[in-house]
């Protein structure tokens, strides 16, 4: 459109004298400048949606793959296989990286996806004797002059006789030209970063969200005191024992710090501190939730209930065996999940059938700055928020991706972006080019 306009102006100006050319030229420039503000953005200016698909569970060798979504045509395009398997995936939206640690159980390879350049390949290695040591935890740390660092806390907790907790942190920078592994000082945990839990009923133990307690908050490593993060505990919390003083540090990024208590009061709550010097505040949620995760200032979580709907408050923490679980209610969407394959033998429903939780199909999104709470009803148990920006919420329901926009302070009904079998294992999404700081 603008190209035709410019062509017409050029042809007309050839027929005019110098003075008239100058006047018309100035008018044309003004029109072009105004047009750039009012015409819709061209596709080249729009951000493309990517997602990472993969499942970590019980040492399974399932690949992690990167896909691109063409929302206009509802097409999913395979980009590349990032890793042949995974122990965990670390997401850092401030630094614009997704880091896949593999193989399962004894990860020694870190593959990094850069959100501002998805085609870029980066792989770092960590060398240790897996016959003697295994990771007790995996941390992302922000270390001066190195940027984001992924570190393995290596110990021998698997030993039946005389188990040994982690004695060293072995790390490597994942967004730096200096990719040499190094021994990380324990006090570097003051720079710990985390983005919380993904859904899909992926094991929480593989997500390495730090357990913290004390004041300041300490990461529990080898003793009741642990290692200090330097983060003050909310002053309004008055724990009476170590159980009531246990929390999950589900958010630690450039924008917020977030705690999720092990033993929440009636209903669910999250404790949030905005900015490095902000005050803690408690947000009471309209439903019981699990698996909180953070996207900058935004928080998302999944509505969760016990499989035994008749359980009393004291029974809700009861662990049921596989035989008992078969007699309890299943999250909605079981038939769909049973047809979604994971590898050659497994299905998505295998993860849900062994779960202690019932997911009614509701998601919540929280703006930590305003304390505003938004609800997304999906109607299916296998659903989760995979990305939140100030403009929209992107969420997965079974093997489909949806987008709901923020309009005038409200969240619109979600519209379908794409549906594809690969989406059933999509738990991380990003827009590219992203505003990454590397």
Describe, in plain words, how this protein is organized in 3D.
- There is one protein chain.
- The protein has helices spanning 2-13, 18-38, 322-325, 334-338, 348-353; strands at residues 48-53, 64-70, 75-83, 88-92, 97-102, 109-114, 123-125, 134-143, 147-156, 164-173, 182-183, 192-193, 211-213, 218-219, 227-228, 247-252, 256-261, 269-274, 280-284, 289-295, 298-303, 305-306, 341-342, 346-347, 357-358, 362-367, 372-377, 383-388, 392-397, 400-407, 410-411, 415-419, 426-432.
- It starts with a helix and ends in a 6-residue tail after the last strand.
- 11% of the residues lie in helices and 39% in strands.
- The strands form eight sheets. The chain has a seven-stranded antiparallel beta sheet with strand order 15-14-13-16-17-18-19, with no helix packed on it. It has a five-stranded antiparallel beta sheet with strand order 11-10-9-8-12, with no helix packed on it. Strands 28, 29, 30, 31 and 32 form a five-stranded antiparallel beta sheet that branches.
- It has two domains: 2-38; 43-304 and 359-432, Neuraminidase (6 Propeller), CATH 2.120.10.
- It is globular and about 50 Å long.
- The protein is mostly beta strands and 438 residues long.
- The chain has five helices and 33 strands.
